[in-house]
Design brief:
6 strands; alpha+beta; 1 helix; 6-stranded antiparallel β-sheet
Length: about 90
Amino acid sequence: MKPVLYPYMTLLDDTEICHSQMLEQHGEQTVEVHFERPIDSGFCSARCSLPKYQWLFNDGFSEQEIQFFTEFLHHNAHLIFKYAQSVGMHCS
């Protein structure tokens, strides 16, 4: 099942960062974080699984950009997990 993605932040270079709801994989709670930036021929995109900081794929981002995103995730993981836990918990 593909995770549903929710907006987190847009960087100055138009890179969109989205996160999934809380997922369960092998008995561990995880969150997938997706990075996407428009380019002339489509999009650069990459996805990382937290809390292991495991890159699931990278299509078009440089190694330097992936290093930046990894550092970004280390600084934002606590917020991303907080938001992922609250997804779908709204009163009706």
